[in-house]
Fold:
Amino acid sequence: MKVHFDKTFPMSCSPAIGWEFLQNVEAVAGCMPGAKLTERVDESHHKGTVTVKLGPAMMSFRGEVEVQDIDQATRSLRLMGKGTDSTGSSAASMDLVARIDDAEGGLCELVGASEVSMSGKAAAFGGRMMNSVADQIMLQFAGNFAAEVAALQAQRFGPAGAGEGAPSAASPPPRASELNALALAWAVFKDWLRGLFSKKKA
Amino acid sequence: MANKHTVSFKLNGNDVDVVVEPRELLIHTLRERLAHTGPHIGCETSHCGACTVDLDGASVKSCTVLTVQCQDAEVLTIEGLEQDGELHALQEGFTQEHGLQCGYCTPGMITRAYRLLQENPNPSEEDIRYWMAGNLCRCTGYQNIVKAVQYAAEKMSSAQA
Amino acid sequence: MIPRQFDYHAPQTLPEAIALLQKYGDAAKLLAGGHSLLPMMKIRFAAPEHLVDLGKLAELRGIREEGNELRIGAMTTENDLIWSTLVQEKCPLLVEAALLIGDPQVRYKGTLGGDISHGDPANDHPAIMLALGASFVLQGSGGERVVNADGFFHGLYSTELKPDEVLTEIRIPVPPAGTGWCYAKLKRKTGDFATAAAAVLLSMKGDTVEEVSIALTNAGATALKAREAEDSLRGKKFDDAAIADAARLAMSICDPAEDQRGNVEYKTAMSGEMTQRALRTARERAK
Amino acid sequence: MAASPDLIERETALQGLGVSRLRKEDARFIRGKGTYIDDLKLPGMLFGAIVRSPYAHARIKSINKDKALAMPGVTAVLSADDLRPLGLHWMPTIGGDTQAVLADEKVCFQMQEVAMVIASDRYTAADAADMVEVDYEELPAIVDPHKAMDADAPIIREDIADKDEVSHGKRTHPNHIFTWEAGDKDATDAVFDNAAVTVKEEILNPRVHPCPIETCGCVASFDKVTGQLTVNVTSQVPHLFRTVVAMLSGIPESKIRVISSDIGGGFGNKVPIYPGYVISIVASIVTGVPIKWIESRIENISTTGFARDYHGIGELAADKDGRIKALRFFALADHGAFNSHVSATVLPAGLFSICTGSYDIPAAYCRVDAVYTNKAPGGVAYRCSLRVTEAVYLIERMIDVLAQKVGVDKAEIRRRNFIKEDMFPYTTSLGWTVDSGNYHAALDKVLQAVDYEGLLKEQAEKRANGELMGIGFSTFTEIVGAGPTKVCDILGIGLFDSCEIRVNPTGSAIARLGTMSQGQGHATTYAQIIATELGLPSDEIQIEEGDTDTAPYGAGTWGSRSTPVAGAAAALAARKIRAKAQAIAAHLLEVGEADLEWEIDRFKVKGNPTQAKTMKEIAMVAHTGNLPEGMEQGLDASEYYDPPNLTFPFGAYVCVVDIDRFTGETKVRRFYALDDCGTRINPMIIEGQIHGGLTEAFAVAFGQEIPFDENGNHLGNSLMDYFMPTSFETPHWETDETVTPSPHHPIGAKGVAESPHVGGIPCFSNAVVDAFAHLGVTHMDMPHSAYRVWQQCKALGIDQRVDA
Structure:
């Protein structure tokens, strides 16, 4: 079963910083909750694992990530990931196109469009969880991403968009190392999300 | 990792002790360790009721009960219904009313009906159809199972009187 | 269909249970009736390293009336609720819901607290609790706190419970005498989750709605309180138009997940239809 | 003339034909003492668990067994590479195709068998199965059979891509299996071209599963010393199973013993030979210890024995009064990734050509194209003979569609088209000779019983109030009892059946047959047939089946063939014994055989009733020296029965439903089923079979379906989603009968178990569609779930309250 997601997240950093960070696959993967890159096969291919957790439910996937179509002009790239879960009875693949767009006040937005496809037991029994899982992956990924780029921005030039006229980009939530339904973080995310638009097509 | 536990409970009135992993399901303990193969496995997702046993006065699906949860419990299976060579009214009723065909769901069905009649000695057809809905049968279409339970209810109440 | 290995703990007291949760944190899961968790573990969607069985905590099972509240232990089973004359008399909505849960065997094992704590919007009690305005007693290392059902459910499998907290008691304000009630549930078969379901409490003053409470099951990531639908009815004459309006407003907050029970359109429409059914039945029962 | 008390007493003592005798089988089942496959435990037995593919279509890049093999308790992990040297990685199917026992470089359906882990117990096996690492390269999957033969469709079966024939004739596409035709196309087309009225409608039988409560399983046990292979297995066809295993393994049949003990329901699911069985056999040969393999429910629904998946278009041509002149049908049959459909060599579409039903239809033509898709194989007949449900569904739906078109009442249009009583035996335009029937009588009896006029009146009133009430009919003719060896075979073996009877000196007897009960009560009913034929009490007649070492060869139990074929063999074997007994009686009474007449349990001298010899007396004498000159001792006989024709049970069903237009919920208010299965052996068991068949029909009509997504993922393979009605959902059944014996069957019996399933499904559908008939609806796809029915209501704009 397939689900499409299109989401946009505001970043409190300049487009250049955002784009620089986006091209660093290890760093980006580091923002992926529950993800670990275990091996760098070559420039564009990595092996790794992703652990997806939702309440009592937990699945662990091992597979490959491939980076494609890095386009400096549009500041976009494509991340293809696929793998099978530790029991071999489920499989998942994701095709994500990520882009850094300009935003007001010299800041930028992270724009993500992805298609997640599930096979096997995960599709048969996990279907109803998919939207919630994907939502939370997105939110926490964006949250972590925002935290990283903000830090990078600060370390390079001091906080972005300082001074009047700057959009009030809410400070991103604490980074979550593993994807889970975190009762704690959820509320935070909801606040942080306020004012963002998020569209989902099943 | 998982250390084994010794679990003691009463099975059809007899004391039993088993040493099991925490994850062992009661249905497997009964069938594999204690040679009680009356309760059957049908769906493993607690929908079919073929594995139904009576646990401390409750009908439960033993595929969804951990053996370690049964410490000091009283377990009754189909094998425990016949008393000193005399069939339980339900066992008789299922034969008299042709309440079984392949026989696979029968032990769970009878064990469930046993508890139902303890709680409601004189159930209507509607009661029976509602309170027996945790046990699937593919052969009989349930109609004769309802009759069998009613047969037993009558026999038991007349025995009371 | 066999769970992964885990360690089993059967605490004899609540503090023991909480201590275990503290010790093992996220690696531990509470075992109540087991009919949500064990099937997930058998298909290996869940693999907790530690199971903490609340089954031996007698203090968590029981129903009593205190002041104007029903106080129900979290480990009280569905059949306990169904057969309790106190609940039948004071809160028939709870009995009606329990009778529509699972199947007979499941109702012997399934507990009120387990059904709520699991945080599954497809479970029936979350909506019932929202409709009743219940509150939950949570006990953990930080001591005890009492939270409202409204706000307790954060998302699919996600609740206000901290990893080291246990839901110990459910407190239900007894609805005023004469309150009408109904839990209307559409399901494919015995043992199934709701395609859609609506819980309603309704008190009337003559032909007009005095107070109304509406909550929906399985219509989104959590059970939903249909506030606008409630507002639209309060103080209004209870007629077909008002019911239809309320149903439309209830549908407007639905965001169900498509599955074998139906697509988003059907499930949303059924949430509306169950709302109508529940309102009509509650009206008949209101005095 | 009333029979004397003495005669009645003797008759009663036999508990023979026509008596509602309580079942012999029950004693062990009600005590939990049945012996089903998973109850069997052999010394040293290991447990097998299968590693399955998460993809519907993929290449296997590598299989890493190291982690699994390193686990304590794990003996072996078998994959195709281990079976290849033995030539056992592929196996023949009963559809004439071949099937991968373990995926050979490629998987073609989700949950296909990739490897089997052999371990000390089922827990260790389950853990180890998870540790087998398989790397796949996913390939595009074909889920929709309509796309299977597209020019650019991915090739599913690379192993046979270049073969222009796999079985049953030429192939026109790598995903094409066969095309089957019946009837005279030109003549039929001509009738359609000139017909006053024609109707055309979709006829879909979705993919479903028989889903017996017991899943499939086996214990394979190979003795390395003696070379003896014993397979305990859940098989409805133990003898065919043994033959296939012999062909496959090269082990002589004399060294293979197949035992089917108690079976927890079959309904067709337990006819085919599945990879799990074969891997277990290989594993036992390799390890030298017994191997047990038991399917999980999810494996059962996902991988073994699906049924139907028949996508058809039906057409009828008729005159303006609704008299049918011709039938035309085209279907696409989705056989999954391997063709393992249970079908005779000359009948690849099974008995579908019975689709002219109970009606006198002068011209007919049907064509079926079977295709491969990335779905599980194992096409079985779910409580029917292959494709008979589909055939009956076609004609019983289409005649309703015609009735609506010409505006004739749905009961009346059936009457107009019925084959009349004086037309039997009647040969259909598709070539079957229907031996007997009395359709008008059956329908009239039912119409009266349900007060049809009253129902029509009520329906009219309800419709006036915007309520939905439907009345459905099914006046079906079944075809069962496969079957005559000239047309019916499996892998070339004719579908005769057999019975051996041995009468002991004291007058008890044992009978062994080639069939295999899965709950039908053979131990009870066969004894009743023999009791009446031999005049011995059925309680003293022991019935055995299912052990290939002791039972005579037979084709097993499916397609309602036990009574029509093996039941006939039992009667004829008994008659051979009675003939010998008559000679002995004549010798003892010193009269000619012609001077004797048979009376219940004895031969008596005509006109001198005191002069008689009971069968019991004769049984003893048969074991002494006091026999006619040259006659050998003993009183036994065997019969291998090749039926001259199939049998044609029929029935008339009426179903009344009420539908909630706001939710789509359908309530079956009433179901009245009249069945005619010819001579009735045990009315109690017949009624039980009808209750069960109707309930399975109800399940199919209202909820059963195996859904897939666009990637070929199963979306409903556990009992959470797959519809199995409980006592609460199941309607109350009313049963009735007429008796029209089969002229060619020794006791006139026809078989009954499948009629209620086959006849029930269209009856439910017809009732649901009829509820919308006044709104112009002529077709709705099964299953009629609330969701589906609501979509119809929505399409018609009646899902909203007017005032809303």
Notes: The mean pLDDT of chain C is 97. Chain C touches chain B at residues 1-8, 10, 31, 34-35, 38-39, 41-43, 49, 51, 53, 55, 79, 102-106, 108-109, 190-191 (CB under 8 Å).
